[in-house]
Amino acid sequence: xxxxxxxxDCPDCDETRTTRWIRGVCHRCYLLRYHAGTLDELRPARGNxxxxxxxxxxxxxxxxxxxxxxxxxxxDRRRVNGLAPRCKACMSEYRSSRxxxxxxxxxxxNYGITSEEYDQMYYDQNGLCLICSEExxxxxxxxxxxxxxxxxIRGLLCANCNRGLGIFKDDPDRLxxxxxxxxxxxxxLVEIGGTSNR
Length: 198
Hints:
With about 200 residues, this protein is an alpha+beta fold. About 35% of the residues lie in helices and about 20% in strands. The protein has 6 helices and 9 strands. The N and C termini lie far apart (about 50 Å). About 15% of the residues are buried.
């Protein structure tokens, strides 16, 4: 288990969690504060997170032990030199060899949930999108739909429905207006002798 994942009592939500802890609160509360803009109330971030002013021209990769130009490495603010320890090629190979680890990492980082919680949501929804009731094509993972204002997870949607909500800015009024527009256009086609797809 990574060192940042531990069990503890969160002062914000008063729950005991086994999760990542950032600036003294659980990951879920950190995301809620991030979206609400109240991070300043937490303890300051660690001082060693800012890269130094020295700009490297090249660096030795810890994966392949080859000296490569600096642009072959991803940026990493947590490192003193501002660059990731492995080159992009080695990091890509490393990630593809551990897909479950990185799936769990991304779910924790972006939404504050574990792979097990995601799998339970998927099971509860029978693997279907909550809007269109279709499976995600190609057996891909379904995107996690969440409120951008609060960080609260709403469920799993297919990529098209999730993208659609984002395009409509999660605004129910816009979605209703779009549905009414489509219904009016369909009715107009029927009146002039066209066919309706309804």
